[in-house]
Amino acid sequence: MFEMKQKVLFRHCDPAGIVFFPRYFEMMNDCVEAFFDQLLDWPFEAMHQNSAVPTATITTDFTAPSRHGDILDIRLTLQKLGKTSLTYQMTAHCAGELRFRTSATLVHVNPQGRPSAWPSHVTEQISESGITIR
């Protein structure tokens, strides 16, 4: 499991003072980017020189509103690692309350946008990190 904290900032909120739902997707992507950088040692700025990991599917439940100043505990758990894809589940909690739950699949693609096998250093890093795939 990979964890990160996200403070809800003014820019995340709508006029009602709660997180505008598209901003959650930006937070989710920030978590994915941090996961690749910090845990897999493959930052997006290096990856995107000759490949990418677009989201193929995503399903999200928004379970409670978040407000300006809340600190979200965002957790990413790997569900499945395929030859070219990676499925994860992500949750965000604040003070023990679930704010969102999402499941998504990323696909590793080559410069032509075609699915491509994960580089060996990525699969090795996942194995060596002790990340449990559920």
Measure the end-to-end span: 10 Å
- Note the overall shape: globular
Please give the number of β-strands. 5
Helix content: 10-25%
In sequence order, what are the helices and strands, one letter per element?
EHHEEEEH
Q: Give a short account of the largest sheet.
A: 5 strands, antiparallel
Unreliable parts: none
What is the residue-mean pLDDT, rounded to a whole number?
95
Number of helices: 3
Reading side by side through the largest sheet, how are the strands ordered? 1-3-4-5-2
Hey, roughly how much beta strand do the residues contain? 25-35%
Over the alpha carbons, how many angstroms does the gyration radius reach?
15 Å
The secondary structure category is: alpha+beta
Short description:
The protein has helices at 21-39, 44-47, 120-129; strands spanning 2-7, 55-62, 71-81, 85-94, 97-107. With 134 residues, it is of the alpha+beta class.
How are the SSEs placed, and which strands pair?
Layout: E1 2-7, H1 21-39, H2 44-47, E2 55-62, E3 71-81, E4 85-94, E5 97-107, H3 120-129
Antiparallel strand pairs: 1-3, 2-5, 3-4, 4-5
What does this structure look like?
The protein is α+β, with helices and mostly antiparallel strands and about 130 residues long. About 25% of the residues lie in helices and about 35% in strands. It has 3 helices and 5 strands; from the N terminus they run βααββββα. The chain has helices at about 20-40, 45, 120-130; strands at about 1-5, 55-60, 70-80, 85-95, 95-105. A 5-stranded antiparallel β-sheet has the order 1-3-4-5-2, with helices on one face. It is globular, with a radius of gyration of 15 Å. The N and C termini lie close together (about 10 Å). The mean pLDDT is about 95.
